[in-house]
Amino acid sequence: MNPANHSQVTGFVLLGLSQVWELRFLFFIVFSVVYLLTVMGNLLIVAIVTSDPHLHTTMYFLLGNLSFLDFCYATITAPRMLVDLLSGNPVISFGSCLTQLFFFHFIGGIKIFLLTVMAYDRYVAISQPLRYTLIMNRTVCGLLMVASWVGGFVHSIVQVGLTIQLPFCGPDKLDNFYCDVPQLIKLACTDTFVLELLMVSNNGLVTLMCFLVLLGSYTALLFMLRGHSWEGRSKALSTCASHIAVVTYTMVTPMLNPAIYTLRNKEVIVAMKKLWRRQKDLLGPLEH
Predict the structure, then answer these.
(1) Of 66, 162, 195, 213, whose CB count within 10 A is highest?
(2) Which residues contact 87 (CB under 8 A, 6 or more apart)?
(3) Residue 44 in contact with residue 204, Cβ under 8 Å?
(4) pLDDT tens digits, residue range 231-274?
């Protein structure tokens, strides 16, 4: 089947979360609050990590990047969803749909690879404390970040490349509030069995491999910490559970990450207070 002869659909109708106005308005209120907290929480972490020299370490560099990615990840779908909840015509063009799909998988892929890098960073910090700064120096950290971005890009471009060749000749109703591969494939006017197999393999392999690395890394850490205090073991277990939870990345996860990873940290709290006092000092003269 030649896509050029059959691709007639120029846009898709996003069915969203509900067709009932009262429910849509309720969802709008709830998710507006969630998105606002997501933006404020994650950008606050980025500002804190950037502004305080005491937090210019590998661990906080990775945490700052994670917060920035969480902000980007939520922004890919949330603003559009909020507008569509109040709109009577939630239609997205084919090009915009593919763009959203690309960035959704691009940022999501980077996040998964970054979480794997973070697990490796914590493993080195606990297993090789004397050589940690030598192993996780700025060059290595930078290369790992570049690798995460490249990995996310390759993962995403594969998804888009496999999707863009499909013929879409109707129907045009997308059973979701954003564009993603599984829903788009259902609308294709051709047999997509092989394509679905390739996409599931691509998604599943990336997620599974990173998940196994995370699980193996923190399992090894727990064994190493058996001789440590209960407080140390509890902290390691908490971090392990947090990483595993984030791998499942839902819309609410970016809002929770600042609290899970950073805001409970004493150094971050001290830096936050410094940033707050600095802002008060700057705004003080303006108020008078």
Answers:
(1) 66
(2) none
(3) no
(4) 666 665 565 555 555 446 434 455 555 655 555 566 667 777 77
Q: Do the beta carbons of residue 56 and residue 271 sit within 8 Å?
A: no
Which top CATH class is 3-283?
mainly alpha
Burial of 129 (0-12, 13-18, 19+ CB in 10 A): exposed
Do 136 and 149 form a contact (C-beta atoms < 8 A)? no
CB burial string 205-243: b at 16+ within 10 A, e below? ebbeebbebbeebbeebeeebeeeeeeeeeebeebbebb
- Residue boundaries of the structural domains of the chain: 3-283
Supply φ then ψ for residue 12, to 5 degrees: -130, 145
Over residues 202-218, the pLDDT tens digits come to: 666 777 777 777 777 77
The burial of 137, by beta-carbon neighbours within 10 Å (0-12 exposed, 13-18 middle, 19 or more buried), is given as exposed
pTM value is: 0.77
CB crowding 273-282: b at 16 or more within 10 Å, else e = eebeeeeeee
Rounded Cα distance between 35 and 14, Å, is 20
Phi, psi (deg, nearest 5) at residue 13: -90, 120
